[in-house]
Design goal:
By secondary structure, the chain is of the alpha/beta class. It has helices at about 20-30, 40-45, 55-70, 85-95, 110-120, 130-135, 155-165; strands spanning about 10-15, 35-40, 75-80, 100-110, 145-150.
């Protein structure tokens, strides 16, 4: 078992440029200290510099990092593309092992919208439309209906507000760390 009955685990998944990082940053901004942000991109691309493939080392590193943060009393937001077939088993184990509430969200944004959003990112010149098409998976949901689907029509502040309320984070005090 991991975490406590009070810790919250929030999993944000979706395609590239669906808004995951922006939502995670908004949650952190609204909550304050005591909320750990664990980004697949940071652990996979920056820390390990590995490709996204089944069985890759970043899957275990994400799992360990989430568990450590929960066991240290942090609420956790883990965000990334987190393909269901690569990360689903790990996420299911985290959900089963977490003592507190776990909430999953899938940001469902059509490809054309992800392409438009990607054009505004700093890495737009490094990652081509071809790459985005290769990575894109329509409604790559985890099995069992464990995710709330949020569409592109939900504005950033609406999505953040909804998740803050759904998870109970809106009613919990920030931790002075």
């Amino acid at each position: 078992m991991v975490g406590t009955e009070e810790t919250r685990l929030v999993v944000l998944r979706g395609n590239s440029a669906s808004g995951k990082s922006s939502v995670a940053a908004g949650l952190r901004e609204h909550f304050g200290r005591g909320l750990a942000l664990i980004s697949q991109d940071n652990l996979r691309r920056v820390v390990l510099r590995e490709r996204d493939r089944p069985g890759a080392a970043n899957i275990g590193l994400i799992d360990l990092t989430v568990r450590y943060a929960l066991d240290s009393g942090f609420h956790v937001v883990v965000e990334g593309i987190l393909y269901a077939d690569h990360y689903g088993d790990m996420l299911a184990r985290l959900r089963a092992d977490h003592r507190g509430p776990t909430h999953g969200y899938y940001l469902d944004v059509p490809f054309d919208e992800t392409l438009a959003r990607h054009a505004t990112k700093p890495i737009a010149d490094e990652v081509s439309e071809t790459h985005l098409r290769e990575w894109y998976r329509a409604r790559d949901l985890l099995p069992g209906g464990v995710e709330t689907v949020i569409g592109a029509e939900s504005a950033l502040h609406e999505t953040v507000g909804r998740i803050m309320l759904d998870t109970g984070l809106a009613h919990l005090p920030a931790v002075d760390r």
